[in-house]
Amino acid sequence: MTGETKGRPVEPPDAGVPLHHRVPDLGALELLLAVARLGSLGRAARTLGITQPAASSRIRSMERQLGVALVERSPRGSRLTDAGVLVTDWARRVVEAAEAFDAGTQALRGRRDSRLRVAASMTIAEYLLPGWLIALRAQRPGTAVSLLAGNSRVVAERLLAGEADLGFVEGLDVPAGLDGAVIGHDRLIVVAAPSHPWARRRTELTAVELAATPLILRERGSGTRQVLDAALAEAGGLAEPLLELASTTAVKSAVVSEAAPSVVSELAVREELTAGRLVEVPVRALRLGRELRAVWPAGQRPVGPARDLLGLTRRVS
Q: Which Pfam families match (predicted)?
């Protein structure tokens, strides 16, 4: 009976040994092909940029691994044995397959690197990302960037759904299911129109007064709202907002029109404060600082354009 024992196939002697222990690596196969092509171990070594002793050692190691002699050496050069001719033919197919594999992975990287999907919370999207993306454009002119602006909760949802490659949020911590890195810091400030009574106060506003006043605020789920809710929890929590708006630009417009004060990112109101369209209202003993973070799905470090953009955030901020 051949090939079977008691009805079961007979396994080859090396069946339990992993393939990478039984098959020479690509470097060794490329060296064997070069010897076959050039007829000299020395010339093959020079072509591949290694020393002749290293090439000899690699051929001997391959012969021990395969259990057959592959190359005969003489003063006139090197020639393949009969077994070496067969192994070289098989090696050529393996190397050609590896070249096809490499070409395919390069095409995949090219496809990946041709686009970048960014999701960012509103303040970062409006006031920081434009500078970062201009710098990325200079570094990667062939990458098309799409930007989704939303609150921090939306950013997390897009990343977890695989609809964004990199995100930016402004909340108190990293959303569940994501990893992140701090890329900067921001401060929330109370602002009012110049005609509002708070703009003419001689004393600092208290946290209790701020908490009890109906304000114009960003919607729940935004990083700004998250930080403000936490900061005023001990002062009784926020009163019912006068207005809840989905963008910082809308909030600023409403405050300038004298509807009510607000709490917004200092980054977002620099121009209005300088021009006198808004006034900062000091608040006593209230910490409203926050960290700005880049975020991505847990366990998946950014690669390609996303990695480059992450690096730029630290240089351009």
A: HTH_1, LysR_substrate
Cα separations in angstroms, 202 against 169, 199, 218, 283, 306: 35, 9, 28, 12, 48
For the chain, domain boundaries: 16-111, 115-179+299-316, 185-290
Residue whose token pair is 């992450």: 310
Cα→Cα distances 152→120, 161, 176, 265, Å: 7, 14, 12, 14
E strand or H helix at 16, and its extent? none
| CATH number corresponding to 115-179+299-316 | 3.40.190.10
The correct CATH number of 16-111 out of 3.30.360.10, 3.30.470.30, 1.10.10.10, 1.10.1060.10 is: 1.10.10.10
Please provide the DSSP assignment of 223-262 as one string: HHHHHHHHHTGGGT-PPPPSEEESSHHHHHHHHHTTS--E
What pLDDT digit, counting tens, does each position of 103-135 carry?
777 666 655 557 899 999 988 998 899 999 999
